[in-house]
Design brief:
Phosphatidylinositol Transfer Protein Sec14p, 2 domains, four-stranded mixed beta sheet, 8 helices, globular, CRAL-TRIO_domain, CRAL-TRIO_dom_sf, CRAL-TRIO_dom, CRAL-TRIO domain-containing protein
Length: about 200
C-alpha cells in the first residue's frame, strides 16, 4: 500500500468523527477516506455530519451492507437495471468509471413492478459495489478515489412519464444516494443527449 495522502488537519477531523461514532463503526467501513468523504460532503460541520453518519451506519447494520458487495447481483430488478461498472479510468487517476444505459432502462416499468424499498435495496447493491472498488483502489494507492458516472441517453423519449420519473422516483433515488454515499461520485457526464434535454434542464 502507498502512503496515505491526507492532510494533518483532515486527519484530526477524521479522528474526531471516528470517536463520535466509534460504537457504530465496523472494521470494514472504518477507513480514513470513508470518514473523510462525510467531512467533505458536509463542509466539516460535525453537528450535521454525526447524525447523518449514524443514520447511515444504522442502515449498514440493518441491511448488512458490509457484505452486500460480496453477494451475487441477482435481485429481479437487476434484470432490467444492468450493471455499469467498467473499472478504473485509463487517463484519469483515482477514478472508477460507471456507464449506465439510462435512455434504454425501463424505469417506468420498474416502479410499476417493484416496491420503492425493493428498488432502493437493489440499487444499494450497486452502490456498495462502487464503494468496494473505491476502497480497494484507495487501499492500493493511498489516495482518495471516486466514481465517474456516465449516463448514456440513447433512445430516451420525452413524454409525461419522463417528467414524472424525474420529479418523483428517480429524484428519490438520487436523494438516497447523496444522503448515504456522500462524495462517492466525482461527477456525472451525459452522452448521446437528445435535443429536448435543453428544455428539461
Amino acid at each position: 500500500m502507498s502512503p496515505c495522502i491526507i492532510s494533518k488537519k483532515d486527519k484530526e477531523a477524521i479522528e474526531t468523527l471516528r470517536k463520535a461514532v466509534k460504537d457504530m463503526l465496523t472494521p470494514y467501513y472504518d477507513t480514513d477516506f470513508n470518514l473523510l468523504r462525510w467531512l467533505q460532503g458536509h463542509n466539516y460541520n460535525f453537528d450535521v455530519i454525526i447524525p447523518k453518519l449514524k443514520n447511515h451506519l444504522l442502515l449498514r447494520n440493518s441491511w448488512d451492507l458490509d457484505n452486500l458487495a460480496s453477494k451475487p447481483r441477482n435481485h429481479p430488478l437487476h434484470t432490467y437495471w444492468k450493471a455499469g461498472l467498467t473499472g478504473p479510468a485509463i487517463k484519469t487517476p483515482n477514478i472508477i468509471v460507471n456507464i449506465e444505459q439510462t435512455g434504454r432502462n425501463d424505469y417506468w416499468g420498474m416502479i410499476q413492478t417493484f416496491s420503492s424499498s425493493e428498488i432502493m435495496f437493489a440499487r444499494t447493491h450497486d452502490l456498495e459495489l462502487f464503494l468496494r472498488q473505491i476502497m480497494e483502489m484507495e487501499e492500493k494507492t493511498g489516495q482518495q478515489a471516486s466514481v465517474m458516472y456516465i449516463m448514456d441517453l440513447t433512445d430516451l423519449k420525452f413524454d409525461k412519464r419522463l417528467l414524472t420519473l424525474l420529479t418523483g422516483p428517480l429524484a428519490n433515488i438520487s436523494t438516497f444516494m447523496s444522503e448515504h454515499y456522500v462524495e462517492m461520485i466525482h461527477k456525472f457526464a451525459l452522452v448521446n443527449v437528445p435535443s429536448f434535454m435543453a428544455t428539461i434542464w
